[in-house]
Amino acid sequence: MPVINYETLNTNTDLTTTRTLLHESIPLTGAIVSGTYGTEGSEENIKNYTHGMFQSVYDYPYLSSSANHIFDITLGYHASSPFSGSSSTQNAKKINLYNEFAQVLLGYTGSTNTVETFESDLSFGDNNSLMKSCYFLSFARLLTKDQVKKGTFAITLNTGSWIINNIEEKTFPKGPNTIYTDASASEIAGTNNKGNAGEYGVLYRNNGDGTYGDGSAAGVGVVFYQAGIVVLSSSIFDGLTTGGTTHPLNAFYRKHSNGFLQGVSGAFTGSTISASCDALRHRIANISYNNTTELNSTIYFCRAPANKFNYSYNPTYTTGSKMVVKTIAADTPVAYITTIGLYNSSNELMAIAKLSEPLKKDPTNELTLRVRLDY
Known about the structure:
single chain, mainly beta, 2 domains, 14-stranded antiparallel β-sheet, 5 helices, elongated
């Protein structure tokens, strides 16, 4: 068997790497989040756990083999929050949940070595922007991929009362829809880094006229892009105005035929975590964002110079010591390239690339073939 000649790749001139970001639009309608399957109390795509620390939302009944996990939802508050107290339902769990998210996403303070506190701006140090009672939405990697694309996240919430009809089969939020978005963030501005969570951006209320926030640029939450976690302040539901009167903390009330039952304070102190997750979930009208898939590539420039690769080692290339592709002995040799093989330093075949059509190669021409490996 003839000896195969290898062409050595020069790492400086024949090899390069690239990074490509692919984006996909993800719309999560409120119908899926808040009651497409089943009735109140028996929503088949909402999974609650015996530990009672969070609930999971699926796109189909979660017992179905075709169900996909969309996101988890829970809540928590800081130990110094007004909601914290021995009489609060699941008080220890709610504090632990807040501390767990803060520890993972923010890390510890440098001076006192205590867990950081969530804030609704990028300063991290302004006590007026502290978020001590929050909802946490953790999106599945199935949807967020490598990260949420900056400036694309939006959540539409109904900040009205949670009204249950007389037969208590469905829940209907009654009130205005408000969009909260990170539209002020972008790939080059409006984001920052904190702790181990990577980049994050602030969520502001969309005023519908091209402006965001309330004039003081106060944020209502934070989206952590690489972690795929959204933190919403309970202040979103403060100050509902009904009949010309503003009722602080009433915007989260659950209303029945006998009137208001509980508000934001009731949800965070007097209700279980699962019940409070239900209250928020039934107010979600829409969630949308673009995910990001990071595609890394190594590109090899495989060069076939004029004096090489003009002969094939395929046994059918010659018959009776004569090249079958030559009709006259004096003609120059010719070959057709169909395959490229990448070998390691021990000449072991590592990868094969097939050409879409054979390329003619003879001593009068040279070829440069571009091979890309994605990972």
